[in-house]
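The authors assume throughout that readers already know how a fold can be written as discrete tokens. In essence, backbone conformation is discretised, so a fold becomes a row of integers matching the chain in length. A single example would do more here than another paragraph of explanation. For illustration, here is how one protein appears when written out as sequence plus structure tokens:

…
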Amino acid sequence: MVLGSVFGIFSHDLAIDLGTSYTLIYVRGKGIALFEPSVLAFNRMTNKVEAVGSKAKEMLGRTPGNIVAVKPLSDGVIADFDATEKMLECFIKKVCNRRVLVRPRIIICVPSGVTQVEKRAVKESALRAKATAVYLVEEPMAAAIGAGLPITEPSGNMIVDIGGGTTEVAVISMAGIVFGQSIRIAGNEMDNAIIQHVKRKYNLLIGERTAERVKNEIGSAYPLEKKLTMEIKGRDLVEGVPKTITITDAEVREALEVSVSAIVDAVKIALEKTPPELAADLVDKGLILTGGCSQLHNIDKRLREEIGIPVSLAEDPMTAVVMGTGKLLENIELLRKVSIE
């Protein structure tokens, strides 16, 4: 199939950021049509889908035995093939107004370190979810386009995309990734670190949703100007009864230290491996942060302090990847350059 003839003027072409935590879908000519958690709930007895997205997320940890709420993606890649296919199919129907005959053409983002097997799993899931053609683009490339970086110019552009399952670090020049690294440490790992810290220190068991709320509200990568505290509820592991405790920003920062340090180290490695001419560009231009977890309090300050180059947050870090992918729906020439097999 010739790429130039793929995106017809009357088609329902979609750009999908299939993330570990959230799935975003951009519809050509309309913009972002879906922004939902990557969660699926299904009935174990009938194998019927009970809910997807936000409704399914509310069920996490709260379902009866016959209903299971799952996150089909783990560390940026498909962990449950069937659940991913069902979730995609539901999301595609939703944005195409449930028209059964619509078979869209799709661009999907994948982490830069994915294997051939993982790429094939993403493609097959989308094709089985009723897509007619599927094209893959690396997440950092899409994030850079979405953040408005001049990726086609012969100059260095650095992007750090901190999502739910992976952190993508890439240096881009002339529409190609000069150096790219994907580490499977990001938002979910941070949530888990908070759960483990609370368990160790307070003998209290908290759920994923509570840990995520703690991270978003009082989590930080560098000391805050004003001290923050938060009340959290969970189950006392000694007494077995519900219990409430107060946690501070300092102890959450301590719990997140291993994850944050790994991200800082990944950025340092990328800078060390960048050719000198492109590294020189980055001294002035700095790097751009995208992804949901780039909004962790003071992560930009921490990076600036440790690597000594300017660090700025994209205008809308949560949607940078899907917006960049959406722009590729309109620019076939650029899609031809950046899509991967």
In short: The two ends are 14 Å apart (CA to CA). Confidence is low (pLDDT under 50) at residues 4-10.
